[in-house]
Amino acid sequence: MNVKANKEKLKLAMANACMNTEDLAKVCEMPRPTLNNVIAGRGVRPKTLGRVAKVLNVPVEQILLKEV
User: Which is deepest, 14, 16, 20, 29, by most CB within 10 Å?
Assistant: First the structure.
């Protein structure tokens, strides 16, 4: 099962953490293409989104896209 990030909330969390894509990829220890998939709102593994949320110090629910 894949999950998607809410693009706007993710970008806001990145701005609050003063991190750009390159910084976040390094700290998350993940390839930039994988992080680009997260930021683009493409489906990723829950573990991947969880790692991003942990580094940004936000609950994963805050950046998780809730589809209706």
Answer: 14
CA 28, CA 44: separation in Å to the nearest integer?
14
Are the CB atoms for 55 and 24 separated by under 8 Å? Answer: yes
CATH number corresponding to 7-59: 1.10.260.40
| Extents of the domains making up the chain | 7-59
Residues 6+ positions from 51 with CB-CB distance below 8 Å: 28, 30
Contact status, residue 39 vs residue 65, Cβ threshold 8 Å: no
Helices (H), the chain: 7-16, 21-28, 32-39, 46-56, 60-63
